[in-house]
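USER: Please consider what follows.
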Amino acid sequence: MITKDVLDQLYTPIYDKFLLQTFKEDEQVNQKVFDQIDDKTKEYKFDGISGLGEWVDATEGSSGGYEDPVLGYAKTLTQAKRWKKLSISFEAVDQEEYALLGKLKDASAMGRGARMNVEKKTASILYDGFSTACPDGQYLFSNSHPKNREETGITYDNLLSGAFSHDTLELAESQIADNFFDPKGIPIATSEKPIILYPPALRGAIMRVFSDRATERPGTTLREINRFAGMYEPIEWRYLSAALGGSDTAWYIIYPELKLLAVVWSAKPHFTSWIDEEDEFYNFKGRMLYDTGAFDWRAGLASTGV
């Protein structure tokens, strides 16, 4: 027999299943770009530290050659709670046999709402990067990042220029070669394909350069080769668009393998429930705790597209 005392125990697993299914039903771009870290502490602290610099010449019997690492710029992420609740009255259950099952669409909506929150928060780290400081005190995308906290007179530039095109990407690669160094001045080499992130409005421009058939350079009449075919992983992210707070012109080159963009989770999305006997409601709650941020500008480069 199903009684009011066990209804929530019976349906909580079903609600939890629907919430999690809809949380994951569309592939989340943030999981391709942001490192996913599980951490149960109240705050997650990232303290960057450099490696060692270039080796120096030495002569037989000489001393020296010692070098200290350089401390980076600290970044703290504070995991905050996000939630959504749903209540169903006793009367709704008493008068409709399938009342709780009929509310599964609300659990699905909870899952989609949770996914939107995470996608929007992570995307904002990038589209706000033209006006929000990263740990070194400069905007995340800036032309004046200090080499390190001890050599501030040497600066690097990860702010690209121009609307996306084959030609601006060539300029971007030249800029990367001139500026992509670690805090000790050693060139950063990556082994994976960089990700090109873009909003839906740039789909045409991106596909003309990166589609499987884009072996010729766009906009040319002499069938010049498109050397970028297959060199990048283009990913469209709706949450970068102007309609969702971002920009329809900005584009981004990101290096996920460096793990300098992160989502820190204290609690992944999950479901709880309880019965309010006084007011006669079955209560359901989806909740999660996380924070997100950029630890270092070397996560990537970007252009406002204008």
